[in-house]
Specification:
It is a single chain. By secondary structure, the chain is of the alpha/beta class. The chain is built from four helices and 39 strands. Helix content is 15%, strand content 27%. The strands form six sheets. A twelve-stranded mixed β-sheet has the order 7-10-13-16-19-24-27-30-33-36-38-39, with helices on one face. It has a ten-stranded parallel β-sheet with strand order 8-11-14-17-20-25-28-31-34-37, with no helix packed on it. The protein has a nine-stranded parallel β-sheet with strand order 9-12-15-18-23-26-29-32-35, with no helix packed on it. Strand 21 and strand 22 form a beta hairpin. The radius of gyration is 25 Å and the shape is flat. It starts with 17 loop residues before the first strand and ends with a helix.
Length: 354
């Protein structure tokens, strides 16, 4: 075993190292920095790390009181924290106080590990690229990729090994598409991350039961994906039946999410692993769905709503509501119901044992 990360190496600026003051100056307003940078010593930083693993050249953060002990013991050179935790920081590290240290850590992390895009035009000789495809430069296309007629791929994009992009698909700029993906009937914006094994544009599950059997609905819609969307490994996005399936800007889908035909996912929605969205579901902007949530067809989950893990949504959820359970209900009522049930079961067990 080794504690050295052999897969990720931090970016080094031309000067050889970042100064934490310069990094924080770029994001001060976004994270609500209250420490006056001018009063702090200049310190070079070379990486990010958690409180336990951080060393003298690392930037770490603490945002929760339950991590006070780790904060007090950290060897990090710099810690980003909230005002209530400042007194717990060791004397040997620089402590910067701000409203949102976790966001600051993420933004500084992006400086150390900038998002990768194609810098050189590189099409592997085993790739099969249609003569009618339009490939801007630079684009990186890995071995055994298949690109169909009329496909358009914007500059800066990276296409992983054995991925298939079918006829007419449009891929914008600076998209990263992983290995073994299949993409059809799709128009994609810029700066999207499509991880390995994702399927986009397959036939939706639209069926008409009849006395003589099942009749399949025609599936002639598209999948429209905005900018900055992330779709993680092995997720499946069906194309629309007649209209389109839409995933708006900055929506984030975890691994193994299933999105049914004609579903509309608004901007910055967050959908955790193994969620299943039936056809024609609407997810509002900024809504959050926990892992393994199931949503019945044509349901509407309002903007900013939250659905706790493993819930079953069979009725509409209002904007900003927090629901849980199956069928999903107000989350506090759900917790009270569980408490009542557990209490009743304990009482019944006591009576039965007498």
């Amino acid at each position: 075993m080794t504690d050295k990360n052999i897969f990720f190496q931090p970016y080094k600026p031309a000067s050889g190292a970042f100064l934490i003051g310069d990094m924080l100056a770029q994001i001060a307003d976004r994270v609500g920095l209250t420490t006056d940078i001018a009063t702090m010593p200049k310190r070079e930083v070379r990486n990010i790390a958690g409180l336990k693993a951080a060393g003298a050249g690392d930037v770490s953060f603490c945002a929760l009181g339950k991590h006070r002990a780790q904060l007090a013991a950290t060897r990090a050179g710099v810690v980003l924290l909230t005002a209530d935790l400042q007194a717990d920081a060791p004397n040997n590290c620089l402590a910067f106080v701000m409203r949102d240290p976790q966001l600051a850590y993420a933004l500084i992390g992006a400086m150390f590990y900038p998002r990768m895009t194609a810098q050189q035009h590189d099409i592997h000789p085993t790739a099969v690229v249609s003569k009618t495809a339009v490939i801007e430069q630079p684009v990186s296309i890995a071995p055994y990729v298949v690109i169909g007629d009329g496909v358009k791929i914007g500059k800066g994009s990276i296409i992983g090994a054995s991925t298939v992009i079918e006829r007419g698909v449009v891929i914008g700029m600076n998209n990263i598409i992983g290995d073994n993906c299949s993409i059809s009937h799709c128009v994609m914006g810029n700066d999207c991350d499509i991880d390995s094994g994702v399927r986009i544009g397959g036939r939706g599950f639209g069926l008409v039961p009849t006395k003589t059997g099942i009749v399949r609905m025609p599936q002639i819609g598209q999948v429209l994906i905005g900018n900055g969307v992330c779709i993680s490994c092995n997720s499946v996005i069906d194309r629309g039946t007649s209209g389109d399936t839409v995933i708006a800007d900055n929506a984030q889908l975890d691994n193994m999410v299933a999105v049914g035909h004609n579903t509309q996912i608004d901007r910055s929605a967050v959908i955790c692993s193994m969620v299943g969205l039936a056809g024609s579901v609407t997810i509002g902007a900024g809504a959050m769905l926990g892992g393994q949530v199931g949503v019945a067809d044509h349901m509407v989950i309002g903007a900013g709503a939250k659905v706790s893990a493993q819930s079953g949504v069979a009725s509409n959820v209002g904007p900003g509501d927090f629901v849980g359970g199956t069928p999903a209900m107000n989350h506090m009522q759900y917790l009270r119901g569980n408490h009542f049930l557990r209490t009743a079961m304990k009482e019944n067990t006591k009576k039965s044992s007498k």
